[in-house]
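Worked example

This section walks through a single chain of length 196. The input is the sequence exactly as stored; nothing has been trimmed or padded.
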Amino acid sequence: MSEPLQKLLTELEHFGQQNDAAISERPRRVLNITRDTGEFLSVLVQATNAQRVLEIGTSNGYSTLLLAQAAQLIGGHVTTVELSEYKLEMAAWNFERSGLSDVITQHRGEAGGLLERLDDACFDLVFLDSKRSDYVHWWPNIQRVLRVGGLLVVDNATSHADEMAAFIALVSDDPNFTTCTVPVGNGEFLATRAGD
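Given that input, the structure is written out below as tokens.
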């Protein structure tokens, strides 16, 4: 990782910590993933050769940059979606500063609507870090857009276990998916899609 990108990520980490300590309303909190989660995602992208990555929940772009840096190394691309205008603007600025904006496509709006419009099997890896109560409703389209052999990674599997329980049970009960939870950061739930 380049020194300028490393410095930008450290700046965003500090901003996120200070911002979230001072602000209680969720729409203005950035709620970044942990650094070790970012490193884990970077390894997963490269190890699975995930050239087409979908991130649901851009926030200020911290996790997007870690995904994009890994995707760039393998000739890949990251598509990210965010509902909050405030966060979209922050992320766009951070993408410009990072030098990675050419491997990132930003979508404005609600993730469920985007998922409905996407083609079948168009992503190799989906990273889910958004409003957890929506995940169960999105599941049919998440399955549809993830290619066979593709990987779903969901943040907050242990930190918000109660909120994640219904979704984890739904995915774990699907015979086309093999799942596990990894104790990295706030807990990462992983599901890989086998053939139908």
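What to look for: The CA atoms of residues 58 and 154 lie 14 Å apart.
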